[in-house]
Amino acid sequence: MDDYRVEKLADDIRAGMKITTNMVRRFYRIPDQEAIDLLEKSKLRAEELDLDIEIQRQSEMDIKRRKQRRTNNSYNRQNKGWK
Length: 83
Prior knowledge:
By secondary structure, the chain is mainly alpha-helical.
């Protein structure tokens, strides 16, 4: 259940919601220290998700560049005789 809460709060944090310890404590009806721990875990998870997405985006850009380079090279090889 705790993992679900962490993921849900991490998604909300990534969406731009300003979540406070008091909100977490009241919503889940848990003590202060548990709410603080849950919020910290959620913030860390949100940062991890952001990094994962950034890495994925970067790898997609690298693949596009490689494909473009490959097509440019084959185009140049085909047209060498015409120059």
